[in-house]
Design brief:
Rossmann fold, 7-stranded parallel beta sheet, 605 residues
């Protein structure tokens, strides 16, 4: 077995090539090394993994890591092996021979970290297999999966509350990047972490640019967004499997290199696509939310949503897969009233959900709608949801770069609500807008709505504006959707305050297509080359090509050779010898021995 490091900083520099810890990392690590439990709530990209990987190398024994996804376990194990760390996993995705070899190494004491699924760790047979192995630390990764409030709830995680009893005296560390206050309470209660020290870092991801737009032509809007990321890797999320496949095929027709991923694919094909995304550069992956939890690829430069996610937690987690290396990255989402109606319908029609669960899910959706419709800073609204105050506008979201106009919509809101009331709360927004703008249709005539006082009272506004009005009224919870009545709009209790003018209604003014075109230029491409001169960008591309060649020969992902941040540092600092290269963040002793000379030669040339 690898000899334990005597000091965490020594392990950090020797193995990972970093001189100092970031944020609260060192405090977490020293807490665990003192034998105490810890709950770590750090956003993606803040180095959560080091909080248990470094203690694993400093403790005289085995660290067990509980992870929800087999693909994620394999990815992290390969990353550690590339660093020279003795890590392995037991999983159903491996052959019997491979799992037997892991067991042999376990019994021989040759492993420092062993990754397993939550189902496996609570099995008596697994605990018996540990035999005389000294377990020094237990890590529960993606611990938000234990909570029904959290995104990606997993029933298998509920059994992990017994770990304290199963492994008495062994410190436990639970980590997640996605946890609002309700989810945090659940994690502590269900994992029996009442005595754990809680570490909460800022949920802000300052390198990520947020953009949310109302959908006019979803595909064209996506095309304009993707045009800024030539040669970069990214993810496009869609709600349905059919839309995933259709969007992927269309992107390939437009000249992009795209693959698709969803839960109904054959396991072999899913594994192939995951591996392609991990190993290749410049691949666009079109997927449902079945892809991505805990994704280990640091240089995902963009994440786009063509449909509305289900919650702020889901949106934050999915967009958080961009820019884990800290370099500039962008997110983009289009949505419409149809998305909102569909999401509400999915909540109401889920026969497995209790009334309380549906209430929680409606609240989550409404919180996301409030962020979509905000006239203020997107980042401020997102962080506020997680209980964090952001002092000033961020300057790195669409509403900060292109401030949104507001208008007093009280009269328009009263007209819209009156149309709902006068027509009996029986119709969807399409028909209600026809009534408001005075459009004579078969339906408005059939129900006699052309004779109603509200018919045509909203001719001063366009159909697009009325769509925005109804969307924002829904976000404000002045109206709701009755899915038992084919998506009819109904009035909420607060509608009475609007009718009686006890409150002012202020709407955001949606941008016209011309406005969107004129503001595009300000949203510069966010990629690995940002901030580099033309000459430096040429060297960066040369080093990236060298990295790809080395990774193919070694059978590992390019970022496992060196991440983009390290390549950028090579370009800026131009190391000419071993000492200078080892001083660059991300270059540890093992990686220098394997790859250092190749990059020194390329830089010198």
């Amino acid at each position: 077995m690898q000899r334990p490091f005597s000091d965490p900083t020594q392990a950090l520099e020797t193995v990972w090539g970093y001189k100092s810890f970031r944020g609260q990392q060192e405090d977490v690590i020293r807490t665990v090394l003192q034998g105490r439990d810890a709950l770590v709530l750090f956003p993606t990209g803040k180095g959560k993994s080091l909080c248990f990987q470094i203690p694993a190398l400093c403790l005289d024994g085995l660290t067990i890591v509980v992870s929800p996804l087999v693909a994620l376990m394999h990815d992290q194990v390969e990353d550690l092996k590339a660093l020279g760390v003795a890590a392995a996993c037991l999983s159903s995705a491996q052959s019997d021979e491979q799992n037997s070899e892991v067991r042999r190494r376990l019994h021989a004491g040759d492993l420092k970290l062993l990754y397993v699924t939550p189902e496996r760790i609570v099995l008596p047979s697994f605990q018996n297999m540990l035999g005389r192995t000294k377990v020094s630390l237990i890590c529960v990764d993606e611990c938000h999966c234990v909570s029904t409030w959290g995104n990606n709830f997993r029933k298998d995680y509920l059994a992990l509350g017994t770990l304290k009893t199963l492994f008495p005296g062994v410190p436990r560390i639970a980590l997640t990047a996605t946890a609002d206050p309700h989810t945090r309470e659940d994690i502590i209660r269900l994992l029996d972490l009442g005595d754990a020290e809680v570490f909460v870092d800022s949920f802000d991801r300052p390198n990520i640019y947020y953009e949310i737009v109302e959908r006019s032509n979803g595909r064209q809007q996506l095309l304009e967004f993707l045009g800024k990321f030539e040669g970069e890797s990214g993810i496009v999320y869609c709600l349905s499997r059919n839309k995933v496949e259709e969007t992927c095929n269309w992107l390939n027709e437009q000249g992009f290199r795209a693959r698709y991923y969803h839960a109904r694919m054959e396991p072999g094909l899913k594994a192939e696509v995951q591996e392609a995304f991990r190993m290749e550069e410049g691949l666009c992956l079109v997927a449902t939310v079945a892809f991505g939890m805990g994704i280990n690829k640091p240089n995902v430069r963009y994440v786009a949503h063509l449909d509305l996610p289900s919650s702020v937690e889901g949106y934050y987690q999915e967009t958080g897969r961009a820019g884990r290396d800290g370099l500039p990255s962008s997110t983009f989402m289009t949505y419409s009233m149809q998305d909102i109606v569909q999401r509400h319908r999915m909540i109401e029609e889920n026969v497995e959900s209790s009334d309380e669960t549906k209430r929680i899910e409606r609240g989550k959706l409404n919180a996301l709608l409030a962020i979509c419709e905000t006239v203020g800073c997107r980042r401020t609204a997102i962080l506020s949801h997680f209980g964090e105050r952001y002092a000033q506008p961020c300057g790195n979201c669409d509403t900060c770069r292109n401030p949104v106009e507001q208008w007093d919509g009280t009269d328009a809101a009263i007209k819209a609500l009156a149309a709902v009331y006068r027509t009996g709360e029986r119709f969807g927004t399409g028909h209600l807008i026809d009534v408001l703008v005075g459009k004579v249709t078969e339906k408005t005539e059939k129900f006699g709505h052309t004779e109603f006082p509200v018919f045509g009272v909203g001719r001063e506004h366009s159909v697009q504006t009325w769509q925005s009005v109804f969307r924002q009224l829904l976000a404000f919870d002045h109206i709701g959707i009755d899915h038992g009545n084919f998506g009819a709009v109904i009035l909420r209790e607060s509608a009475a305050d609007v009718f009686k003018k006890r409150c002012q209604v202020v709407f955001r003014k949606d941008k016209t297509r011309a406005d969107r075109r004129s503001s595009k230029a300000s949203n510069t491409a966010a990629n690995s080359r940002a901030g580099l001169s033309d000459a430096d960008a040429v060297l960066f591309e040369r080093l990236r090509k060298l990295r790809l060649e080395i990774s193919k020969d070694a059978g590992i992902a390019p970022y496992m050779v060196f991440p983009d941040t390290t390549l950028v540092a090579f370009v800026r600092e131009r190391p000419s010898n071993e000492r200078e290269m080892l001083n660059i963040a991300g270059v540890g002793e093992t990686k220098f021995k394997r790859y250092g000379d190749h990059f020194l030669e390329a830089i010198a040339d």
